[in-house]
Each structure stands twice: as C-alpha cells, then as structure tokens.
Amino acid sequence: MKTFLAGAAAGAAGSVIVLIATFVVMGHWAEAQPLPAERQKSLTIDGAAVSRNGGAAVELIGHGELRITCRDGCDDLAEEERTTVPHAVRVLDRSGRCLLCRERFTPAEEALDRWTLDGRPGLALSGASR
Amino acid sequence: MTGPEAKEGRPFYRRIAFWGGVAAGAAAPVGALYALMILTNNGPGPTVTIAAEGAEMTRSGVARVRIVHDGGALTQTCKGTCDDLEFRAWSDKEGYAVQVLDAEGRCLSCGPRRFVAYDPMGLSARWRIGGADGLKVTVEERIGGGPARTVSDPVSLD
Q1: For residue B110, what are the contacts with CB-CB under 8 A and spacing of at least 6?
Q2: Contact residues, chain B, for A74 at CB < 8 Å
Q3: What is the 8-class DSSP label of residue B118?
Q4: Alpha-carbon gap, residue A44 to B100, rounded angstroms
Q5: What would the pLDDT profile of A13-22 be if each residue is shown by its tens digit?
Q6: Packing angle between helix B16-42 and helix A2-32, nearest 10 degrees?
Q7: Chain A interface test: which of B10, B13, B22 (most A C-beta within 10 Å)
Q8: What is the complex's ipTM, to 2 decimals?
Q9: How many CB atoms lie within 10 A of CB A114?
Q10: Which of B129, B153, B150 lies closest to B60 in space, CA to CA?
Q11: Quick check: B81 and A71 CB within 8 A?
Q12: Which residue in A88, A87, A116, A110 sits closest to A36, CA to CA?
C-alpha cells in the first residue's frame, strides 16, 4: 500500500507539473501571436428580396444567434459590428429548406467589410471592401 | 530467489503497485480538470435571450427594434407586420440594451444597458417584448442558477 501511495504521489506531482508547464507555454505562445485587426463590419439583409424569393425565416449567426420568422413580408435586418469574422447566414423557406445558406467564408471573403444580401434576380450574398 | 521473498527484495520502481499508483495519481489531476471543463461548458445557458412578438409590436406602433451591445448593433426594421424575433447570445462581460422605436425613431422603450457575464455564477438577462393586452417589455435578470428577478422597462405609447 505504501508503495502504491508513493507512486500515486509521484504520478500526481508529475501530472500537475506537466499541466502547469503546458499552460505556461501555451500562454506565452498566445501572447506572442499578433492580434487580428478589429474592423467595423456590416451586413444588411433586404427583407423584400427575401420574401420575393420565398423566404420565410432568416437566421444570422455571429455575435449571437438571431432568427426572425417572417409574417406578411420579411423585415430588413442590419448589423454593424466590430468583429474579425463574418457571420453564417441562412434564408429558409416555409418547410425549413435552405434557399441561401452560407456557413463558411474563405480568408479572402473574411477580409471584406460590407456584406449585402439582396435579390438580383435570385437571392445573393455579396461582400465588398469599404 | 523466487516467490514473495524476491518481490520484497525488488527496488520500489520495479514493483507493479508503484506504477499502478503513478498511473492513478497522474490521472487524478487530468480527470479533475476534465470534470471542471464539462461543468463549465454545461453550466450556464445563453447570457442574453430576446424574444419579440411581431403582431403585438405592430399593433403598438413599433417600426424598429435595435439590439445594442458593446461590439455593435443589430436592427430589425419592420415591413408591414413586424416579424417575430428570437435572439440568443453567450456573451461574456458585455453590456446589452434593447431599443423599441416607432416610425419616427422615437423610443417607445429604451431601457438601460444591462451587464451580462458568462460563467457558472454569471449574470444573464432575458427580454420579452409583446403581451396580449398591449406592448410590454419585461426583463428577467438572473445570477448563476438563482431565481430570476423581473423588472420592466417602461413603455411609452403617447
């Protein structure tokens, strides 16, 4: 039993030392990384275009999770935010099918600041630089 | 020499009991950390919840709802009947305010900014905009898993 307890003490001490060392190294590594530039980003959603194309709900995932359920014509949405990543955008029809769903953005797209979702002629999400 | 005598004569680092202890001892802090991570992740739900009933907002002359936070703002502009809105966020150490505006941009309800924090003993706030008998903006604030404290943001329908 004494041998087991001695082993347990050694194991626990070793484990704690390894964990602390890992956190210290990770902390220094994180501090050494350059901070991503925060930029003002915007996203506007044209409710009339969403309605015209059969949209019944809009979901916007970014700072939080927003869902609007359209009544007699979808509302306009506008988001202005200091952020480093664009949002996921989903336009759904009455049966919950995706009419336009963008879940991922490429690094080149992430650099764009001004996003618009409108209908010309179909639903389209486009980004531009300021 | 074989048998128990030989076992007793082995140095401690060659005994199974020692290495069993090492394994158990090493696993204990890692297990405790893992349990803490699970507890933290499964602890609080969203720190901000906003639910707005479009029909009641329209009846009360609402034309715009703004969710303002420290990082920016989100604006819903009604077209005809206002849409129902649901918003959830897991924000940490951030202020939130909800502004309910009429067509001229006048505040029907612009309550104070409320602070939220995400951790097991955090602060959360829930706004409800609606009501069957006239527009009401109700805010529930909760600390950790404690009881909700209900406050009402005044609504002006002059």
Answers
A1: B97, B99, B100, B101, B153
A2: 79, 83
A3: -
A4: 19
A5: 998 898 888 8
A6: 40
A7: B22
A8: 0.73
A9: 14
A10: B129
A11: yes
A12: A110
